[in-house]
Amino acid sequence: MPKTKLPKPKLPKPKRQDQQHLQCEFCEKDIVATGLLRHINDGDCYELHTTDSAKRLGFIKCACGHLHTKFGTTRHLKNCIAGRAAATKAAIEDDQADRPDDLYFREENDDEGPEDRENVNENAAAAARANNQRRAARQPPPVFPFAYHLEPEHLQHVPYLSDEELAKYLENDSGSAITFRWYLLLHQLSNPDPNTHKRIRQIMSEAANHLAQKFLDTNDRTQLDELLFRFLCLPKVGWARSAADAQERCNIVTSGDVRSLLLRLVDTRSKRHVPSSVAGDATLDLNPNEVNLTLKHVSGRAIRKAGQVVAGPRASAQLTQAVVDEMKAKHPVGRANPCGNDAGPLPPRLRADEIGQMLDLVTQQMDLQTAPGIDGMDPYVFKSFLVRSNDRHPTYFRSMLVKLVLTASNDTVVGGAMLRTSRSTPIEQGPKVRPIACGTLLVRVISKVFLKLVPHTEALLPNQFGVGNKGGCETPIAMMQRVYEDHLRRSLISSSSTKGTSSAAASAFDAHAHQRTQPVREEDLDDDGNPHGSEPASTRSSRRLTPLPLREQLEVAMQDLKALEANTATRPRLARQAKSASVSMAPQVSANDGDPDRSEESDASPTSKVSDNVRTPPVKPSDTFIVLMDLKNAFNSADRFATTRAIYQHCPKAYRFWKFGYNTASMLIMGYGDETHYLSSSQGLRQGDPCGPLYFSVLIRTLLPELLVDTEAELMSAYLDDIWLATKNRNVLDVLKAAFPAKNSPTGLVLHEDKTRVLSLNELAEGKIGCEMLGSFIGSLELRRKFLNTKIDALNLPLSRLRSLPFHHQFILLRDSISKKVLHLLRCMDTTGLDSELSRLDAILWQVLSDIQDVQFDFEVNEKAAILNHLPRKLGGFGVTSHLFIRDAAREACMSSALQQLRTVFPGDRRFCEGPPNAQPTFEDDLASANPIADLPTQKELVSKVNEDLLARYVAGFPTRIGIFTADCASNTGTAWQQAVPRGQHRYLNDQQMREIIRARNLVGPTHNSDTCAGCGQVQRFGHEDSCQSNPYRTRIKTSSHDYIRDILLKAARDAGRRAEAEPVLSVRNNQDQNAVFQNNLQRRADIKIFMANSDTVLDPRFGLVDLKTSGVLTNHTDELTRTAFDAPLDPTRTDKHPENLRRGWNAIAAVLESTVHKSNTHYQKLNLEHPVVPIVISAGGTLHKATHKFLKHLGMGQGNLYSETIIDISVALARRRAELRLACQA
């Protein structure tokens, strides 16, 4: 039967004190805004209103004299005779005006010939074309009659911007000043709650798709601008805490007076904004305000924000006048209209289906903790707009996004001023601030889709790693690391070859085997930019590093080293190092090259002899300088005119998209209420724009080739504005000053001389200095140890402040925030020899878990506790990753990926081969050179292998009972409580419950308990709480847990669109032959009754009646069954990556669950029921029976994350059940 349609509930009227009051302009009475129309029509004021005065109020004056809204025209004309007559007359006149008179009212002419008829037809066609043009020129009536001006007197706590101040943001057809001024008020409203109820999200989604449908159906730019404004208002203005209020507000946003509602909300909420507090030094404990803020962020899934509060003082600076002035200085004034009036190259041809597929990918990869813009649209709101309650309807919002991508790529998008407006935040970085712009999520998604669809790899040089590089900053760091290691080996060889040995051999080795790739100098190039005597090549290829032929010279060096090795018999280790480094095929720089302190006489012939008793000074390799450049305010200072020319030349497909984003100045807003400040961004790139790195890289791409030649650099890499190069030119700093002048810079980029560092590779090799770049460190062991200890000591403050929070919040922030702050160093930095520091880092992180359990572990002795803390949740651990365990896997994945990319950029440089730099080339190296893009193992794959080995070591040696208990706790449902965000009473675990859960998982007894149970007096074994019959609270705890899980399944069924009932009475068949005992069992009940989808009477054929059972697997009556199943041989045909003991434990649990199902089926078969009852069995630790899996999948089919959310709720209920039973067994 079709589902009966319930009557639409009447929405409650808003309270009187929340409504805006207006004054009638004729009778001067104080009228509620929503009752203004009724006041005018019921009194005599309607006679005084003219058409213009009614239009100013957003109304329409009828021919009868009364006023009505545009959306009430149909209802008004039903009872208005004068209005219907006037409308009919106007329609007739309009129809006659549209018809060409000479076409329909032409006089007949009997003498008309073919030529005359042909002329008449031409005249008729011309008249029709003129009529169509006249009709198109008519201004359509406004869709929404509420676009009135925002006057200064309307704003009491927000600064007002005049038309002159807004003019620069509205150039190039960027929208209406009236609408844009209203849009800026959205910044004053708070963002919607991420934990919004599902029904409220559905209401907002329907409103969003309703506006998107109108947006797709019209082409009038005025109407599109208004519709876009209303759509951007929806997340903040349409949101409310109750479904009734949300429905009313969404109706106003879609078709009502949204401006009055927005003004009322701004006037109410702008008074609530508290001025930003002063950012002072962090204390060792969180103050009450910080605790409340952290709890709010965690419950809203904003783990990063919560981690920032715990880490120390707030990162955003207080908006003092000095900070405001510095922020204005960070945004210099640029020229207007930098792209000119030329439309530019055509954009790429993008198909709607391609854009839709890429949009789905971007949405799937979206970070849920991304901050919203001034419109308040966060990832949760964005994803809810893409889902409608009725799947049969198309998602108009998705089609609207496709349209915006197409129009933005062609620079024809409407409402550009609103879309370019960003929320600016000053981030404290020492004594200075860094401006961060957070644009609307709508524009960020559009930009990411455009970047993925438009090819831009050819627009950049191969040594630019800031855009489209999978490894990010790891590639330039690995590049610098290999250069340092190469120089360090040459220094060791040079020093070892001169201690009591032949200096002639060392000179020959240094002259031949240590030749490095020579840079192509300007005087070595011909007029075409090619090296003299070489084949013609492009300028880009000619400026690459050119390896010199070395095989013949290395053969001579090998002969000299044989004599060298014979004289170094007392130092075999150094001799082996010298030999292994000498046979390298990597091109080396000559020791004399660029060193003015060495003369030509130092290059002695191979046959010269020096007495062994004469000690010659060490021959150092020629010094090379590493330059780490720093540019002042690089992104915000980039000249937009120079960037326009660079994009036009190197990335023409993105020209019009660049023009959409940066041809007109954009608005930046800081602060709230009276502290609101408006900044103008007319120069540079907004930090936070997804396309900003590409635009900046294209600009810097025009400077890198000349910089490579002028600085005589051997190597160079650029990661956005972080550029480093290696050169022998001692005057390199003067060259950089000329390339980036402080005044009249053609690109707007200026060298920051105070932060630009010039390092000597000789001093690096000697350990005198270190090199800190891109968050990593390169240098000697002692300097790396000092750098790592500094990072570890910086964690003491957040770990101390973390202890001010409840245990559940401590666990989440430790696992997802604080423990990940140093993980990147395992990939980027060489941690060889730093085992003790990494062990200390793991220990201080795991100490938080020890404090929660109130148990102190010595992790060097208790390896199983360390492994359990490290293992991820899917393998039964707590997920606080060990830095020592994954150190080698992370470093291998990083270096292999980075070196593979460097070999493609510098194919002739042996420093970037696998293994040590300048090692003897092997067959594997030749194969890697032939296939430079071969698949490499990722860190995830390597760490998975490490975790599998650790898991096998953890479960090895466990007896039967502990093995079964561990397997039960390691199931997917048994560990899903770790994914629960503490929110409300259902997802929150108090401190006692968290302590008992983690102690149970660590195989530790209950808190403050002896070896015996308080109820039965028996010795407590693992799982005793499930089998103790003497526990006085056992029945109450198990019953409440059973009912709670039943309610979870009931809610899941209803969320899946099913009608479901709790505890239905079972109906027995009327059979006279049945036993009377079973005939009288009419009040037996199941747990859940589920009906078919879209039906209220037909039961679900598979799971119509469900009986929930929670079974303990370590009870007295299951000991023999579990022991038999545990000792049974495993299936040899089934391959499983899990250890053998874990698989045996799961087999034992499955046997117990199957036995429970069999008993339940046998029991219900005796009752002779009309409908079968399906048992849903879950173990006490969380292992699901196979029928339970099918049941949950059946309910959650096509419902997104319904299955996972239900699993988390069940896991929390079971974890709370185990904790309460353990606490009840305490002595």
What can you tell me about this protein's structure?
There is one protein chain. By secondary structure, the protein is an alpha+beta fold. It contains 52 helices and 18 strands. The strands form six sheets. The protein has a four-stranded mixed β-sheet with strand order 6-5-8-9. Strands 10-11-7-12 form a four-stranded antiparallel β-sheet. β5 and β6 form a beta hairpin. α17 packs across α19, α43 crosses α50 and α47 packs antiparallel against α52. The protein starts with 20 loop residues before the first strand and ends with a helix.
Low-confidence stretches: 1-18, 94-122, 134-143, 271-279, 500-619, 920-932, 1076-1080
Mean pLDDT: 78
Strand content: 5-15%
Number of helices: 52
Coarse morphology: flat
* Major beta sheet, strand line-up: 6-5-8-9
Number of strands: 18
First and last CA, distance: 59 Å
Instruction: Tell me the Rg in angstroms.
Output: 38 Å
Which key terms come to mind for this protein?
1227 residues; alpha+beta; 4-stranded mixed beta sheet; 18 strands; 7% strand; flat
What's the short story on this structure?
By secondary structure, the chain is an alpha+beta fold. The protein has a four-stranded mixed beta sheet. It has a four-stranded antiparallel beta sheet with strand order 10-11-7-12. A four-stranded mixed beta sheet has the order 15-16-17-18, with helices on both faces. Helix 40 packs antiparallel against helix 42 (939-955).
Topology:
Elements (H helix, E strand, L loop, with lengths): L20 E3 L6 E3 L3 H7 L2 H4 L2 H6 L3 E2 L5 E2 L4 H6 L2 H18 L2 H4 L9 H24 L25 H5 L9 H7 L14 H20 L3 H17 L5 H13 L2 H12 L18 H12 L3 H9 L9 H9 L22 H13 L14 H7 L10 H14 L6 H5 L1 E8 L2 E8 L1 H13 L20 H23 L6 H10 L26 H4 L8 H16 L5 H11 L42 E4 L5 H4 L2 H11 L4 H8 L3 E5 L6 E5 L10 H10 L2 H7 L2 E7 L2 E6 L4 H8 L17 E4 H6 L4 E3 L2 E3 L2 H13 L2 H7 L4 H10 L8 H4 L6 H19 L9 H8 L16 H19 L17 H8 L8 H17 L4 H10 L2 H4 L15 H11 L22 H4 L6 H22 L4 E3 L13 H4 L8 E3 L14 E7 L7 H9 L12 H26 L7 E7 L6 H10 L6 H23 L3
Parallel strand pairs: 5-8, 17-18
Antiparallel strand pairs: 1-2, 3-4, 5-6, 7-11, 7-12, 8-9, 10-11, 13-14, 15-16, 16-17
Helix pairs in contact: 10-11, 10-12, 10-19, 11-12, 14-15, 17-19, 17-21, 19-21, 22-26, 22-40, 23-25, 25-26, 28-29, 28-30, 36-38, 39-42, 40-42, 43-50, 45-52, 47-52, 49-50
